[in-house]
Structures are given as C-alpha cells and as structure tokens.
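Homework help board

Subject: predicted structure for assignment chain

Our instructor gave us this sequence and asked us to write out the predicted structure in token form, then describe one feature. I got the tokens but I'm not sure how to describe them. Can anyone check?
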Amino acid sequence: MNLSQLRKMMLFVAEKMVESEPTLTALDQIVGDGDHGIGMKRGFATLIVLLQDDQFKPNDIGDFFNQVGTKLMTSMGGASGAIFGTLFRAGGKSITGEAEFNTSTLAILLNQGWQAVYQRGNAKPGDKTMVDALAAAATSANELCQLPLKEALPKIAQSAMEGAEQTKQMIAVFGRAKNLGERAIGHMDPGAVSMAYILKYMNEYIQMS
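My token output:
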C-alpha cells in the first residue's frame, strides 16, 4: 500500500471513527467521564480535514503517521489525545523512510507505539486501558509479518477486539474507572474499544479494495 492508498484508507477509518462516537460515549458513560467518544470524534473529524487538504504532503509512510499523531494529539485533548497521539507519532517515527505500508511496517508501528504509550503513562496489559487491545494487536502482527496485509489484518484486528473484550474482566488501574473498583467488571474499556475499532476499520477498507 503506497502513500496515496494509505491516505484513502485512513480517511475511511477517520469517517468510521466519527460515526462510532455514540457507541464510545455510551461505554465511557458507564466506566469513565463520558467524554471519550466526543474526544475521539473531535480528533478524527480534524483528521478528515487534514487528509482532504491538498497542502498535506507527507514525505513517506512514517511521516504520514507522525503527522496524523500530531493532529490527534493537538485536537482531541485530554488523556486520549496524548495516548493515541503518542501511538501514531512514535509508531510513525519508527518507520521513517518507508515507502510502503504493509504487515511488517504495521507491526513496527504497533510495537513501537505500544512501548511509547507505556513509557508515557506506565499502562501495561491487564490494566484495563487501550494497551490491552494495542498489545494484543502488536503481538499478533509480529507473528504474521510475512503475510500480505489483506491476509494479516483480519487476524490483527480480531486480536485487538479480543484484547478489548478481555478488559471486561479487569479492574481498572487508571482514570475514573479506577474509582469504580469491581463495579467496572463486566464493562469494556472505551479506549481499548477505540483501538480495536481503528484496526477493524483498516481491515474493512483493505478487504473492500
């Protein structure tokens, strides 16, 4: 997938993330402040504007994701902006110079992004955050590096969704959900669902194209 194709895919992802706002808001009203969906919508709506702007001319795949991360970080605000912005900025920097987006570059992006998110906030798998979906996807991507993106992405996206599903059984270590203790059990973490959705929509686009 070249830069032009990647741009179209991420435009599709951004539009789908905006549409997902009610679902993400409903989830966050149970375990969080109720604003996660609104923040994600704001960030990805701003991303749509960026991706449709003729002045947006990234140098390569890495630069593309770095700029995407910067846009999310500055437009979303709050913890989500910092976390998702860090994921794409750090992930993008790790694949600077790459001309093609494939399973291998996605694996590097997810793994480096995960490490950067951990360094920023110390969230690890099992803490009921977006890291549960991100780490599951990164591990899956590592195992599927040799496969074409069209074959690998369904499994990577599924792993992310399974990681999000597993947050139902967890007690939160961060955020407002932390105050709920065992009452948060049975509910998925909204950030983990957002992470899984991003990969789900990437996969939907790839399968259509």
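Reply (TA_rk): Your tokens look well-formed. For the description, you could write something like this. The chain has ten helices and no strands. That's the kind of observation they're looking for.
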